[in-house]
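A student in our group prepared the protein record below, which I am reviewing. Here is the record exactly as it was handed to me.
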Amino acid sequence: MTLIQDIRFGLRTLAGARGFTAVAVLSLALGIGVATSAFSELNGFVLRDVPGVARPDELVTVEPPTSYPNYQRYRERSDLFSATLAYAAPVPLGVFVGGRTERTWGHLVTASYFSTLGVRPSLGRLFGPEEDQPGRAPTVVVSYRYWQDHLSSDRSIVGKALRINGQPCTVIGVGPDGFQGASPLVYIADLWLPASVDASVAPELADHALDRHDAMIFHFEGRMQPGVTAARVEAELDAVARQLEQQYGDPDRQQKGRRVKALPGGKLVPVPKEDLPFLTGFFVVLGGIILLIACSNVANMTLARAAERRREIAIRLALGSGRFRLMRQLLTESMLVAAGAGVLGFLFASWIMRLASRESAWRAFAMPLTLHLEPDGRVLLFTLLLTAFTGLAFGLAPALQATRTDLTPALKEGGNVRLPRFRRLSVRNLLVMSQVAGSLALLLITGFLVIGHQRMTGLDVGFDAQRLYVISLDPVRDGYSPSQAADFFHKLLDRARRLPSVTAASLTDTVPMSMVGKPGAQFLVDGEGGAKVFHGGQRYVVGKDFFDTLGIPILAGRGFRQEDETNGSAAAIVSEKMARECWKGQDPLGKRIEIGSDDVPTFSFGGVGIKARARVAGMRRTLQVVGVARNIRIGLNTKPDDSPNVLYVPLDPAAYARPGLHGLTLLVRAAPGPRGENGIDALGAVRRDIAAMDEKLTPFNARSMPDQIDEMMFPVKVALYTYGFIGVFGLILAAVGLAGVTAYSVTQRRREIGIRVALGAQNRDVMGLVMKESAVMITIGTVGAQAGIRMLGAFLSIIARTAGTPMRDPFLLVGAPLLLALLGLLSCYVPARRSTRVDPVVTLRQE
């Protein structure tokens, strides 16, 4: 009953102080909203389970990917696993629906895929043991989303055929609602095909991929037996992998290092446990600093308001109210403010996360990226706990101080005549100093990120992007044979080069400046003493006119020629950086490189990931360097010199049999024209030529290179605005807090100021008195922040390195404290000016 009375009285009290209530609720709501958004993002990426999977905690996945023969050995370990699966991903598929071919993403899976995950169909059936038998007519399972969006929720679809990659595949079932594969955030899937299908349906299985131990294209996942841990799985499978290397005579078998890494298989992103502190630490630090600033701000406002209620509290104490009873009342008011802020903060976070989850926000990715960042029950519980903590954090200290009131002076008329003097360790000043320290730390963190992201968006890409256009095709997945695809592209190139609006044209398997490109490649070069040395980078398969079309200079040697585009060609061109790193000042021309037929897929999340053991995957061949090309930007690196090594190999007939994620991309450079008209004509003319050659082929990703760069930079720009907003928000909160404390100080010291003016003090003396106190608090807070930043040194260095910003950037290390100090002094100046308007006659009359 007394709690209800406290709530009613608290609501009336807060309604009577609408200005204080509005500012306090808004400040805390923004702080809680930002912290909740950070936790919701962490939850959506790291903590959330894979939708539709049964008992996800029992699942374990193994990185890096393995071969199908290795999977067969892993699944024999029934002492470790009750069930296992393997799948190849990502797999682009051309599906003929509604009279046109649409590009869709799927998995090539073992028959045990769905049963191991504990997934049940919403329609029809899922794969059974018979699907693992080669030579069977191809079957397919479609996702619930694909069934709704592309098959019109047709309940009679089971038993009908879909034309996939030009081949008829019988639909046998529809997956459950919400399920999009074992790794929906990394490799989303709308279609599942058996791994036993013919290579004509899935080019990924060409060259007897299921029989080759060096074809590392399958992801392995298992459901652990009761009592088995991920650490045991890792140790046991690592031993199995080493045995298989010896058995197969793997050339890399003597290399040191772990062969496999066991990760949580039931999570959206399988992040290693040792990387969780970094991922969670970033969100905790960022959200904690913002809440520290907001709580310090509101706590100072509450202290000022408690001073105004000093007489009220003294009367209630004199009438017999206990100190604990009054503290409970004041804490109830604080909790009411926090509750209102918590509701608004949760709604704000829900809105922000809903915007971030829209697919259109991630259109730069080659694969559709579906994010579910909206707050769920776990985030709601976090917000409730955060709200309760916030109410106590900003309400407890003011409640303790307010109930320490000395009754006799407070009950006297004019009982606050004591001249307060500056106390460096008062609660109020400690709160201000914590605000300054938190604001400086927040300013540095967001500064590193903002400057780094700004540099990403504005630097040279290393080639001429103007009047350059791209358009991708995948004839093999539209039903062409490799020879037919090669013949089609040769004819298309000839037609494109004859267009009057085109000055150059070429082909590539990887679009420059794309978010998703080729996976990492490993290769061997001759080191000192004839020893083989591993190096990593990326491999581009390009046509002979690629460098001329993009405007990439050949710095040494030559470019590719027509004779290089044959099977068995040994010509290779390396980037400038690769030449420096591999041969360290030697002439790279004529040097030999040993490379495999398969690239090594790697998993990475936010710069934290599994680095596969260096190995050359697939059947090896030896290349000879014939040229060195200038560096270009790859992905989100800040400048061309920071990009990974790039090895260019010529587009030979074998490249048409296994097209990459982008299929093959035609690059055309348009002739100069007013306002890009020739560029538009060039792209339209190429489209018309494709339709004239075969109207059933479906081109995709047709755009200009500037548009390609803008779309790739879209996530960077989102991060830039997000962190910029957080930094500005922290500064505004700190400025409001400092201004409020100074105004409170002026109000409390009105009589002291009046007496000083009556005794002859000038305006500058009064201003100096007030500003001196503010300057001391800001200075001490800045010094305290420097100590705190040293404690966060390792964390800040990771942030700086990730953002590409120098840790010792003087613009930040000197500019951030100066900016904060100037803004703090400016925010204190306005209320300090009010102190010069104190009328000594009016003030002294109150004595």
Observations:
- DSSP finds 24 helices and 23 strands in the chain.
- Residues 413-424, 601-612 have pLDDT under 50 and may be disordered.
- The CA atoms of residues 556 and 778 lie 58 Å apart.
- The longest strand covers residues 81-97.
